[in-house]
């Protein structure tokens, strides 16, 4: 049970770091890649970043794989 608080703290720190780095992330175009779905109508906006999620997932998977070795 002692692993859950540690995991929550790490996730919180990661969210804060991503929030602080968001201006730089936005400048490189992450979140507006081809394949990301964006629908905008009057009073309605839907955004589903499929390609961005796949890219982030691949990068995180490779990093975790490298750190386990």
Structural class per helix/strand content? alpha+beta
- Strand count: 2
Report strand order across the widest sheet: 1-2
The overall pLDDT average reads 87
Please identify the oligomeric state.
single chain
Q: pLDDT below 50 for ≥5 consecutive residues: which ranges?
A: none
Largest sheet features: 2 strands, antiparallel
> Rg to the nearest angstrom?
16 Å
What is the distance, rounded to the nearest whole angstrom, between the alpha carbons of the first and last residues?
A: 26 Å
Number of domains: 2
Helix share, percent: 55-70%
Q: What does the overall shape look like? A: extended
- Figure out the total of helices: 2
Fraction in beta strands:
5-15%
SSE topology string: HEEH
Note down, in words, how this protein is organized:
There is one protein chain. This protein has a two-stranded antiparallel sheet with strand order 1-2. The chain contains 2 helices and 2 strands. It is an alpha+beta fold and 69 residues long. The chain is extended, with a radius of gyration of 16 Å.
Question: In a nutshell, what does this entry contain?
Answer:
The chain is an alpha+beta fold.
Quick tags:
alpha+beta, 2 domains, 2 helices, extended
């Amino acid at each position: 049970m002692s692993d859950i608080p540690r995991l929550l703290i790490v996730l919180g720190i990661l969210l804060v770091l991503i929030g602080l780095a968001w201006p730089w992330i936005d400048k490189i175009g992450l979140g507006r890649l081809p394949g990301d779905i964006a629908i905008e109508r009057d009073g309605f906006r839907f955004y589903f970043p499929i390609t961005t999620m796949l890219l982030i997932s691949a990068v995180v998977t490779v990093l975790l794989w490298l750190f386990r070795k």
